[in-house]
Automatic annotation (TrEMBL):
It comes from Rhizobium viscosum (Arthrobacter viscosus). Its EC number is 2.5.1.19. This is 3-phosphoshikimate 1-carboxyvinyltransferase. Its main location: cytoplasm. It catalyses: 3-phosphoshikimate + phosphoenolpyruvate = 5-O-(1-carboxyvinyl)-3-phosphoshikimate + phosphate. Monomer. Belongs to the EPSP synthase family. It is found in: Cytoplasm. The gene is aroA.
Length: 450
């Protein structure tokens, strides 16, 4: 969505027994990467199951502005890429809307080219730190012009010949890793990224699939060293995008919380770099059956049967954060209905998401009667399994701060709370999960625009 659109408040009410089978839209991370690499590769790329969320569509527009030809043919997106090293200088500024992934990956991809590129975004994205990507790019020789600190708008200009670097990630961020690797595609020589804690690995996998010369080595401490030979040829591919586990999380937690529920969520990406929430919920005694495990497009995929469960509080270790970084808002909602206390550690990165998610979660929980405590990098939630007194009888709404996952999480909370839960704005949900309202309604959830 673009800045300034009218906000759309919404409200969720206590529901009974969710049921049915739903298919979750395509994974957002993989969809961005498919458009970027398809737009860059020589020849034709066909993408099936692409997420049609606004974040991803913005990345598509940006690739078009740099020379990719993209069209839709039935369920497929067909891309004719420019060829590696042959992006065109964009004649317009590149607007990434709400998307950190779109902007940070493209800063790497285009920033090393010897032309000016202007990067912009909405009010939420313009408050997010870009230094984590700009620092390695500077080391490759990229010139950075920004008006204010490391915030958007930013103008990048690459040198005539960018330098290969060896870069150790200081934050566990797949966006930073991906930005450096994508930059490395246009750098002569070998670009090396060292990743102390594994983050989602879709970029590495997809680069290899498009024919990049890339190696990944993991040492005995789990540190990964990724090496990419620059300026190689990438060739168009056929890509099947699996369902997004970060979107599946919302109907999944809703079914766990609403008594009498029994739902199936089909075609969910089960990459071990993304399944921290499922593992945590299983530790909390959630009834999640993993069915029909299979490989699709090089990724693990499964169907999930989820039944209402009596949850128990747990301590979630900090090391698990990268594999469930986008799922803490909805996990915190699940924890509100669990017996005992849930403590989530290692949450420092939540402060740099579409909003300061740690404080947005804590404020939303408190507004709706949940006992919780927010630390600098942790959150503890004391649950009340029957949801008695939860919700806001006075009709006060959760402030979503332009954050789609805060919006969806609190709507899920309302389905099991005694009183309704309202949110000030649901419009951002279209950035990642445009079908959310219809899909939840089809399962029997009572959610409406307020
Ligand atoms: C993403 C990486 C994560 C995640 C984001 C998507 C990606 O961000 O929160 O929603 O596609 O690479 P960080 O790299 O900032 O952890």
């Amino acid at each position: 969505m673009s800045q300034g659109s009218a906000s759309k408040p919404a409200i969720a009410r206590k529901s009974s027994g969710l049921s049915g089978t739903v298919r979750i839209p395509g994974d957002k991370s993989i969809s961005h990467r498919a458009l970027i690499l398809g737009g860059l590769a020589s020849g034709e790329t066909r993408i099936f199951g692409l997420l049609k969320g606004e974040d991803v569509l913005n990345t598509g527009k940006v690739m078009q502005a740099m020379g990719a030809v993209i069209r839709k043919d039935g369920g497929a997106w067909i891309i004719n890429g420019t060829g590696n090293g042959a992006l065109l200088a964009p004649e317009v500024s590149l607007d990434f809307g709400n998307s950190g992934t779109g902007v940070r990956l493209t800063m790497g991809l285009a920033g090393v080219y010897d032309f000016d590129t202007v990067f912009t975004g909405d009010a939420s994205l313009s408050q997010r730190p870009m230094g984590r990507v700009l620092d390695p790019l500077r080391r490759m020789g990229v010139q950075v012009k920004a008006v204010e600190g490391d915030r958007l708008p930013v103008i990048l200009r690459g040198p005539e010949t960018p330098a290969p670097i060896r870069y150790t990630l200081s934050v566990a961020s797949a966006q930073v890793k991906s930005a450096v690797l994508l930059a490395g595609l246009n750098v002569p020589g070998v670009t090396t990224v060292i990743e102390p804690a594994i983050t989602r690995d879709h970029t590495e996998k997809m680069l290899a699939g498009f024919g990049a010369e890339l190696s990944v080595k993991t040492d005995k401490h789990g540190t990964r060293t990724i090496q990419l030979q620059g300026r190689g040829r990438l060739t168009g591919q056929i890509i099947d995008v699996p369902g997004d586990p970060s979107s599946a999380a919302f109907p999944l937690v809703a079914a766990l919380l609403v008594p009498g529920s029994d739902i199936t969520i089909s075609n969910v990406l089960m990459s071990p770099t993304r399944t921290g929430l499922i593992l945590t919920l299983q530790e909390m005694d959630a009834d999640i059956e993993i069915l029909n495990r299979r490989l699709a497009g090089g990724e693990d995929v499964a169907d999930l049967r989820v039944r209402h469960s009596e949850l128990t509080g747990v301590t979630v270790p900090a090391e698990r954060a990268p594999s469930m970084i986008d799922e803490y808002p909805v996990l915190a909602v699940a924890a509100a209905f669990a017996k005992g206390r849930t403590v989530m550690n290692g949450l420092q990165e939540l402060r740099f998401k579409e909003s300061d998610r740690l404080s947005a979660i804590a404020q939303g929980l408190k507004l709706n009667g949940v006992e919780c405590e927010e630390g600098q990098d942790w959150l503890s939630v004391t649950g009340r399994p029957d949801g008695k007194g939860f919700g806001n009888a006075a009709g006060e709404r959760v402030v979503t701060h332009l954050d789609h996952r805060i919006a969806m999480s609190f709507l899920v909370m309302g389905l099991a709370s005694e009183h309704p839960v309202g949110i000030d704005d649901s419009s951002m949900i279209t950035t990642s999960f445009p079908q959310f309202m219809d899909l939840m309604e089809s399962l029997g959830a009572k959610i409406e625009q307020a």
